[in-house]
Every structure is written in structure tokens, then in C-alpha cells.
Amino acid sequence: MIEFTLTRTTSAPIEAVFDRLTDHRNYKNISPLRTSELVRPGDTEPNGVGALRRMGLIGPAQIEEVTEFERPTRFGYRLRSGLPVRDHTGTVELAESETGTRVTYSVRSTPTLPIPGIGLVLGIILKQGISGLLDGIVRAAEQSTAD
Fold this sequence. Notes:
The protein is built from 3 helices and 7 strands; from the N terminus they run βααββββββα. The chain is globular. The protein has helices at 14-21, 27-30, 118-146; strands spanning 2-10, 35-40, 52-56, 62-70, 74-81, 85-97, 100-111. By secondary structure, the chain is α+β, with helices and mostly antiparallel strands. It has a 7-stranded antiparallel beta sheet with strand order 1-7-6-5-4-3-2, with helices on one face. α1 packs across α3 (118-146). β4 and β5 (74-81) form a beta hairpin. The chain has one domain (2-146): Alpha-D-Glucose-1,6-Bisphosphate, Chain A, domain 4 (2-Layer Sandwich). This is SRPBCC family protein.
């Protein structure tokens, strides 16, 4: 089992952070991801619950489905394909703080390859990739409010 939580604090307001977090098509412009696109819009909002997004760094792209969209405090997704894992979920919680916004990104995943140590390797790769994405989201939110 792979489990980790990343936390960032930003001076950007919670609404700006949520908007950047849920702008799937822009991920490729603010993070190490090479591809990011909205495959299918959500049920009530384009980037909301039910939306499918395709993202990729190297190798095959991952398809993720948005499962939670509670503006501006919570966003969640589950991986549908693209990585050798099952039951992969990500949850991002945003909370206002004295200095702006606190962002907590939690991931759970189960590797499917029967190779000793693969969980450790995949965990490192996932953590680095998501950390880069999270840093880009925070930077973009800060820049959007500085303009």
C-alpha cells in the first residue's frame, strides 16, 4: 500500500487555489506534466464530479475521474487507468489560514505488480510527481492574485 500526504501553505486566497487545483487543462502549463486535458466534462460543472481528465508525465497517460468537488474546500479523484496500481485515490482539502490557504493532498494506492519493492519505487515517483503539480498549483494561484 502506498500512502502519503503533502501539505503546502500559500498566501493566495482559498478560491484562487481551488480554481487552479480544478483547472485540469492548465496542469501542463504549471507543472512537470507533459499532457493534461479534460476528456469529459463533469455532471454539473466542467471540472466537477464525473469529469474525466487525462494526464501524463512519461509513458502512458493516466485517466482520472473526479469524485468530489466541494467548492472551495475539497476535491477528490480516483484513477481509472494508466498506472500499475488499483484503488488509487487522491483527496485535496483546502482550509483558510491566518496567512492565506492551507492545502493538504492525500494519496492512497495499491501497486499491482508482483515485484518486491515496487511499492516503494512507485510511491517515490507518485510523491515527486504530485509534489511538482501541487507546487505549480500554489505558484499559479499566487500569481493570479498578484496581477
